[in-house]
Every structure is written in structure tokens, then in C-alpha cells.
Design a protein that fits this description.
By secondary structure, this protein is an alpha+beta fold. The protein is about 40% helix and about 20% strand. Strand 1 and strand 2 form a beta hairpin. The longest helix has 27 residues. The termini are far apart.
Length: about 475
Amino acid sequence: MKKYGEKQVDWNKQIVDTINALTLIADENNIPRDTVADALKDAIIKAYTKEYPESVVEVNIDIDNKQLTIYKVFKVVEPSDELNDYAEISIEDAKKIDSQLKVGDLHKEIIPLEELSKLSLGLHLAQMFKHNVTSQSNKQIYAQWKPRIGEVVYAEVEKVDAKSGVATVNLESTFGFVGRQETIPGEILIPGQKYNFYIKDVKEQTKGWPIILSRADSGLVKYLLTLNIPEIQEKIIEIKDIARVAGFKTKLSVLSHQVSVEPAGTIIGPRGSRIKNIQEQVHGEHIEVIEYVDDFKLYIVNVCSPAEIVGFAIKEPTTPEERREITLVARSDKLALLIGKRGSNVRLISEMLKANIEINTVEEAHETNLQYQRVEPQTLRQQTFNRAYKKYHVGGDVLKQYNRTNPHVNKVTDTTPKSNSAQQHANAIKKPKTSIMQDFKGMNKEDLLKELVDVDTPKNIADDINEENNNDYQE
């Protein structure tokens, strides 16, 4: 008998509404509708059996016809005093229901939907359904995004949790998240603005969003370099190694596959214009470019620059799982630059060389009798000359800046005949600068360096040398 004031539930409407909700959830989460229906089936079974552990339940959902039916399943058995009333039915009782049943058959009884309206059962059902839908959704996301690990997406920040620092990023079909450790120190991600994010990992999990994004990974800088430097896109320049300590420095080595293209200078650009554009996209982080060389011993010196080392010792691994061990020897007054702030420079060197790094002072190396290969550093004058020589040595024309013909050199200003000695003197004055280069041909660098002492170096070359020299010795 219906109690006064008790609300009558229209279960047919409830079923229709439930199935309509299923299709909506499926479409919003980009999940096949049958998959969501299976999630509801599983949730109902788990919720019911949590209330009645010994019961066996079967659920059928017909999305097209908007029907949901729940059965309690009994196995037909011989009469016994140990009969399980929740999952078994005696053959005698089964025959009363259906004379065709025999021992071993399964008998199904429809469970009234009213039983699902119990509060505890409803709570279990809602929790399990949500869990199952999340699990199914993440499986779909995992299959879709797993192959995209290593790519970069340009996406909008949805929100940033003030307490945890985790940023939620809208990826249109789903969401990704950026943990505090994957952000650039000092950078504040602003909700509503778009940024480049590196897809670092996609986890197969059942809770939360499985896509892990990063702004701190070296892959982001490599992507920006490739995007902004045509020579890298065209594979004229190759990035060999790259290491990054986000917020401090990214260090990379590059190799040119064309003799006429100088790799480091090409990436840096005139007055650093190219590299500055990339730095702006990673919150002003310093990007250091060095030239790759095949000789590993020379490469060690390149990777350590601009810090100076006195020498190094290499211990090769004995098993494939081990890494090289390299001991760098430096003067005490050069340790700070070599180690870097909080050991950041050593971390970059270790990652670039793919080796474990230890640093010794000259005194420590002497005390431990360390046998190391010495590095003879070039003098400042040699370094300056070599940079200038390399920069202006184009196509075999040494110091191209001098290879210019003065447009006024052949202009006649005095028609008065001159004596032989005066004429020779005038010709010497009017001698084109091209002829000066004849004096340099066949000289080696050392002889040319001596000659350059007496050459009036144009201001623009001197300025470039001084500017490069200052930059090289800044930390």
C-alpha cells in the first residue's frame, strides 16, 4: 500500500532519461556509446553485489529502444540443505516457474528498479559509474595521444591552482596538466593565454587527465629552434646534443652539413636576433650554442666552454648499462663558472656528454696523483684573432673586409706631369686595396697575425671582435 505523501517514481521515464544521459556523456567525452553503456552495466553490477555479495547480476541496456533491464541469475541445482538462496534455486522450485528448466540451467529473475533507489546503492552506483566512465575515457585518450609524445601543442591555459601550482590546459578534445616542476621558474602562466607545451608523457590511468605537458623540457627549445631556423628545417644544420636547466640555460651543440654554413653563427643570427626570438618564448632563458666535433676529447673542451679547464681524465664504462666517468680539472678561480649556480652548469655538461662528471682542482688532482690529459688554453689574443679570421675568411678570400676597391682611387685630380719618383709615389698611394690581399696570400695564421698589427683595422671589424670577446667572457 502506497503511503500518503510518498512520491510515485516513473521508472520508464527514469530509464529514458538515464539512456539519454549516457549518449550525451559518450558524445561529450568522445567515447563510443556502447562503451559508456558497458560502464553503466559494470557499475550497476558492482553496486548491487556490494549490497548483496552472493548475488549474481546481469544487466542489459538497449540504447536504441531506450530499455534497461536488470536480472538476478540463479543456477538450478539439486535440493540441498546448503542451498544458497542468493545464487541458487532447487530444481523443484525452478520447475514451478518453468517446466523446461533442468539441473545446471540458469534461471533469471527481473530485479525491480525500485531496489536501485536505495540511498546506499545509489551512492555506490554513481561513484562506480563515474569511475568507469573516467577509466574508459582515459583509455580512449591514451590511445589517441600516446603516439604524440614528443610533439608540441599550442594551447590555452584553462586555470592554475594557486595551492599546488598545477595548470590545466585545454586541448579541445580533452585536458592536459602542467605540474609545478614542469614550468619555467619565474614564469607565471596566465589563464586565457596560449603557450607552447611539450607533450612529455601520456599515462594509462583511471583518475584525472593522463596527458602530462611541460614547459621545462629541452624538447620545447628544440622544437622552437626547428620552427624558427630554416636551416634546421632543411637539415642543413643538425642539432646533435641538447641539455636544459629550465630558467637557467639551454646548451646545444650543432653540426653543419654544408661547408659554407657556419652552424652556431647561423642559429644565433646577426647581433643575436634569431636566438633572442626563441629566448622570448621561454621567458628569457639563456641559450648557448656550441659547435659539435667528432673528436670526443675536443668535444669535452667545447662543451665546457666558456668555462676553462686545465685537463680531463676519462674512465670508460665496463658494461653497456654504465656511463662514462669524466673528471674535469680546473683552477680554483675558475670553479664557479664551471660548476654554475647550484651546480646547473655541471648538470648541463653531464647531460651533453652523457657521462658522470666529477670536478677536481689542480691541487686535488696533484694530491690524488690523477693522471689526466692536459688542455693548453689559447691566449685571449689568439682567440680574438681566430674568431675574426674565421668570421671574415670567406671562400678563400682572407679578411674579405679588406677586399674592396676604392671608387675614388683612379680619379684624376692633377693633370700636371710628375717625375718618375713622384709618379711612383702617387701610384703607391692610389693602389687598390685588392692588391693588399696579394701580400697576405700564402701566409700562415701566425705570420698573418704579425702583419695585422700594422694594418688599420676598420672600426666595424674591431667593434665586432670586442663585442664577441665581451660576450664570451660573461657568465
